[in-house]
Amino acid sequence: MSRRLSWAGLLPALTGGIMVLVLHWLVFFYVPTEAAQGLIQRIFYIHVPAAWVAFMAFGIVALCSAVYLWLGDERLDMAAVSAAEGGMIFTTIVLLTGPLWGRVAWGTWWTWEPRLTFTLLLWFIYLGYFMVRSATESPERGRRFAAVLGIVGAVDIPLIHLSVVWFRSLHPQPVVLKPEGPTLPPEMLLTLMLGFVSFTLLFFGMTHFRYGLERTRIEAAGRESRDGGIEP
Amino acid sequence: MHRKLIRACVPYALVTLLFAGVSAPLGAQDIQTQELGRAYWHVFAAYAIAWVVILGWIVSVARRLARVEARLND
Amino acid sequence: MNYLRQLRAVLWKDLVVELRTRERTISMAGFTVLVAFLFNHALDPARVDVQDVAAGLLWMTIVFAGTLGIGRTFQLESEDGAFHGVLMSPTPKDAIYLGKVGANFVILLLVTLLALAVFGLFFHLQYGERPLVLLLVMALGILGFVAFATLFSAISSGTVMGDTLLPILLFPLLVPMVIYGVSATDRLLAGRPVAEIAGHLRMLAAFALVAVFSGAGLFRFVVEE
User: Fold this and answer.
1) Domain count, chain A
2) What is the extent of the structural domain holding C138?
3) How distant is the alpha carbon of residue A156 from its chain centre?
4) Residue A167: which domain range?
């Protein structure tokens, strides 16, 4: 029992969870309504933090993949797949909440504004990552293929981003990462920051558990093959 | 084994749902009295989706872990 | 010099094989012509001026034809364990990769020329006074495409899904090529000055460089046993 619910995972997960609850209170009671968009803008407080986690997760996947290919340590691949799963979860959230926001804010379920486009592509890169892992007969090869994909994805992403942004821009101008500093009113900024922190903690907590799952899985496979069982 | 974990999560989930269920209509009311207020269901759908996806992931990891541990203990 | 010689050997071998069997070239060429034919019937001339969309159609045709053909890059050698023989030779892995990329590039370039001819014929496109610049745009674009496609073809050949996995892995990464390639082609077809597409050419070159270098660096991890 202690192996599964280690404090290294529980602490960020529970802290993140509690902060998410606080976030809800802030979003629905504390933060003022945004002048131009009205109520719908409150989706912003989960949409943007989820996007941040999705992109950060992919950075982790790429980094772990690169070092995995370089050093060959399986634990790096375990970290990569765990981060990838979390990344895909949050990317899915971005892609589902974005259109709900867009439907009201811009009148349409889907727009080709750069960030949604980019996130959709990221979702497919994640999908490819998982498909390639599971479509090989040898799990070792699958891990290597996935690592290559993670690295290529990371390397192409800046180019994708540049091209997509250049191609079309409908998205509201950035309100936080502007060179003059954030122009959000302080309540909104606080809420958004809480969103970032809580989602990040949640991500790391869950990724830790996912890592434990992977490690247990490999242990079980190793034991089975030693006992003359079937290869996973 | 995983039933224990799920059972441990149930009160947590119930509290959360209670909290959400109470605060949502209250919040909606509160927001409706603010200047630009039309209660769009989209906002609540978005938050509900985020909840479902994340809880779904937690349950998925827990279930897979239970399955693998069962294999291990055989 | 030895490295270049080995690279050339792989390139030449692949080209000669293709020259003799012609199977990939013919299927890609046939695909190109037939797709152009279908496009003509898919577009209602009363509502769409084909000239407006020709650049996009052209590029997508080349992407699809290229995916079709390059997916078979490693198929010939996968039979009878021939690829193991190639890998066990002292040729460095990235030379093998670059040789294959070179061969695929030549083949796809020929198909591109055919596509330009067919689309020009079917849709009455004007290639203007600077057809070579257009060719440069196409060549840069397909170089990046071929580099990524060859790497991912090696990956997908190693999976049980085979060729069907290739588009899923490849297409998301092609966005920069499609965006800048189509835009540049569109402008050239519309007779805009070359100076306007300088940025496009730079981005296409960057894309090609990224693709070739990452492919060359990562190929050895894909093929090692």
Assistant:
1) 1
2) 2-223
3) 18
4) 43-215
DSSP H or E run through A153: helix A139-167
CA distance C39 to C42: 5
Q: What is the pLDDT of residue A170?
A: 37
ipTM of the complex: 0.88
Nearest to B62 by CA among A206, A60, C115: A206
Structure-block tokens of residue C20: 């003799």
- Is pLDDT of B39 > 90? no
Which residues from A are below 8 Å from C206, CB to CB?
159
pLDDT tens per residue across span C85-123 = 777 888 888 899 999 999 999 999 999 999 999 999 999
Distance of residue C22 Cα from the nearest chain A Cα, in angstroms: 30
Flag whether pLDDT at A182 surpasses 60.
no
B67 has pLDDT over 70: yes
Nearest to B72 among A24, A35, A223 (CB): A223
What size, in residues, is chain A?
Answer: 232
- Sign of the torsion angle spanned by Cα atoms C109, C115, C117, C119: negative
pLDDT above 60 for A88: yes
C147 pLDDT more than 90: yes
Cα angle C95, C100, C106 (rounded to 5 degrees) comes to: 125
Counting one residue from chain A and one from chain B, the pairs whose CB atoms sit within 8 A come to 104
Domain containing B24: what range? 2-73
Q: How many domains does chain C have?
A: 1
pTM exceeds cut of 0.90: no
**For chain B, what is the domain count?**
1
Taking an 8 Å cut-off on Cβ atoms, the answer to whether C155 and A148 are in contact is yes
Confidence of residue C182 (pLDDT cuts 50, 70, 90): very high
Chain B: nearest CA to A159, how far in angstroms?
29
What amino acid is encoded at A99 in this protein?
A: P
Residue A158 confidence (pLDDT) above 50: yes
How many CB atoms within 10 Å of residue C171?
A: 17
Instruction: Report residue C98 CA to chain centroid gap.
Output: 14
Does A42 touch chain B if contact means CB atoms closer than 8 Å? yes
Interface residue ranges in chain B relative to chain A, Cβ cutoff 8 Å: 5, 16, 19-20, 23-24, 26-28, 30-31, 34-40, 42-43, 45-47, 49-50, 53-54, 57-58, 61, 64-65, 68-69, 71-72
Q: Checking phi first, is residue C191 left (phi over 0); if not, alpha (psi -120 to 50) or beta?
A: left
Q: Which two tokens stand for residue B54?
A: 């994340």
Please, what is the end-to-end C-alpha distance for chain B in angstroms?
14
Residue C113 CB neighbour total at 10 angstroms? 12
Residues of chain B in contact with residue A4, where contact means CB-CB under 8 angstroms, are 5, 65, 69
CB < 8 Å to A108, chain B: none
Whether A11 is in a domain gets the answer no
Nearest to A207 by CA among A82, A57, A89, A51: A82
